[in-house]
Specification:
Layout: H1 3-17, H2 22-38, H3 48-55, H4 62-81, H5 109-117, H6 126-140, H7 145-149, E1 156-157, E2 162-165, E3 176-179, H8 182-195, H9 215-229, H10 237-250, H11 255-262, H12 267-273, H13 278-288, H14 318-328, H15 343-351
Antiparallel strand pairs: 1-2, 2-3
Helix pairs in contact: 1-2, 5-6, 6-8, 6-10, 11-12, 11-14
């Protein structure tokens, strides 16, 4: 085994011990292997010019170059901490500039409805019914495609109408409980009870061979649906997650609640994740700027959440999250019955600071 292979093997073990997702580790090693192939040398002793060329390729997008920089920076910092190298070669390497753009591929509410209703919920066709349920859950629960395909039958609670997302299936390795909307819950309960094949497999969503569906199955389903309805936005499976968060914020859902629903560990990630429409900015400016005289535009008073001043002063229980989802999600109605959640969920959320459980 070559020296570089031994070094990368040790680094993989380190990333696994840190709880990194398997796909993230694969992508990290792939970038390091690519760097080694382009500039044949020992990874422990790279040339400064080679690093600059690797992260400064003008043919690639800024996000790709920034990803390369991040991989090399973390890798050589680990090498320095493990006394594999004496001097970190990345200390004097400037980070590529990454423009802070608005999230792309966010669907409007009308486009989202077209995507959802393009597939009929026909109980006589299990495949069509399953596909409709997948799109409904992606939008209702703001799920990633990896979280969706990892769902098991035991993860759905019929009494509280909620899904348990296991930490190892998430991007941040943190679990959470998300509410399921009324429409999605009705489809899910009927699918589990009557339509799903009765096979020895714990996965909720099965393919034609009665095996757990994969991430590419979800991506292909969304791509085929988009081509059929011909919407303007080039939506992907992740567009349902971004659109759900953006639509809830536009309906004045609290930012902390949307952050909890998405499973973000940092509130700043939710702010970057959602899309602010220019028309909203214009209305807000004309209604609240002291130099404007727009009497015809009236907006409700803007209240700053208490969590901006003190995280400990803002208490958000699981019941609050369910009610906020029902009140602000575009697929929900306000005349829903009172939602209850077991006390152990609320106590767990409080004990772990609303983040990890």
């Amino acid at each position: 085994m070559k020296n570089n292979d031994v070094l990368l093997y040790r680094y993989e073990k380190y990333l696994l011990s840190c709880g990194r997702e398997f796909r993230t580790i694969q992508a990290t090693v792939r970038i390091l292997r690519h760097f080694e192939r382009l500039y044949p040398c020992q990874l422990k002793f790279p040339k400064f010019d080679d690093i600059i060329d690797f992260i400064g390729d003008k043919k690639l997008r800024p996000a790709t170059l920034h990803g390369r920089y991040s991989v090399l920076r973390v890798f050589y910092r680990w090498c320095e901490e493990e006394d594999i190298i004496l001097i970190n070669p990345m200390l004097k390497v400037p980070a590529p500039k990454l423009p802070r753009l608005l999230p792309k591929l966010v669907m409007t509410e009308s486009e989202t409805q077209k995507m959802l209703e393009a597939i009929p919920a026909d109980p006589s066709n299990p495949i069509l019914f399953r596909n409709r349920l997948i799109l409904e859950l992606l939008y209702s629960c703001s799920l990633r495609r990896g979280e969706l395909v990892a769902l098991n039958l035991s993860d759905y609670d019929f009494s509280t109408r909620s899904l348990r997302i296991i930490g190892r299936t998430t991007k941040t390795n943190t679990g959470r409980i998300v509410p399921v909307g009324r429409i999605a819950a009705e489809l899910l309960e009927r699918y589990i009870g009557d339509i799903r094949p009765k096979v020895q497999n714990n996965a909720i969503f099965l393919n034609r061979r009665n095996r757990r569906m994969g991430c590419w199955d979800i991506s292909n389903l969304v791509a085929d649906t988009r081509k059929r309805v011909k919407i303007k936005t080039k939506a992907t499976s992740h567009s349902f997650r971004k659109s759900s968060a953006t639509h809830m914020l536009r309906r004045k859902a609290p930012l902390i609640s949307v952050s909890r629903l998405l499973g973000h560990t940092d509130i700043a990630a939710t702010q970057l994740y959602t899309k602010v429409y220019p028309a909203d900015i214009i209305k807000m400016h004309r209604a609240h700027h002291p130099r404007e005289k727009q009497k015809n535009i009236t907006l409700p008073e803007l209240n700053v959440p208490r969590f901006l001043f003190s995280h400990s002063s803002f208490e958000l229980t699981g019941s609050d999250l369910l009610k906020i989802h029902a009140a602000h999600h575009s697929r929900e109605k306000d005349d829903l019955p009172e939602l209850k959640i077991p006390e152990w969920i609320d106590s767990t959320l409080k004990r772990h600071g609303h983040r990890r459980f």
